[in-house]
Amino acid sequence: MENITNGHWIFAAIFAISFVGFIVWSYRKDLQLHKVHYKGSSLFLLGLIVLAFLIYVFRGFMK
């Protein structure tokens, strides 16, 4: 970490801001397409979270 100069930190900050900006721009551009192709994916994610929670809860009861 001692060889990292201010230029490196500036580059990293500009890169991170640009990268996040590009990701947000791409997501907003494809939002209508996501609504068509990924309809119901939030229910699937909720199901996975509930399943993981149930496994965590019942794991304690099985011991």
- The radius of gyration over CA amounts to 21 Å
Low-confidence stretches: none
Report the order of strands and helices. HHH
Rounded to the nearest angstrom, the distance between the terminal CA atoms is: 46 Å
- In percent, how much strand structure appears in the residues? under 5%
Mind describing the biggest β-sheet?
A: none
List keywords for this structure.
mainly alpha, flat, 0% strand, 63 residues
Spell out the blueprint of helices and strands.
Layout: H1 6-29, H2 31-37, H3 41-62
Walk me through this protein's architecture:
The chain has 63 residues and is mostly helical. The protein has three helices and no strands. It has a domain of 40 residues. 84% of the residues lie in helices and 0% in strands. The chain is flat, with a radius of gyration of 21 Å. The N and C termini lie far apart (46 Å).
Give a concise summary.
By secondary structure, the protein is mainly alpha-helical.
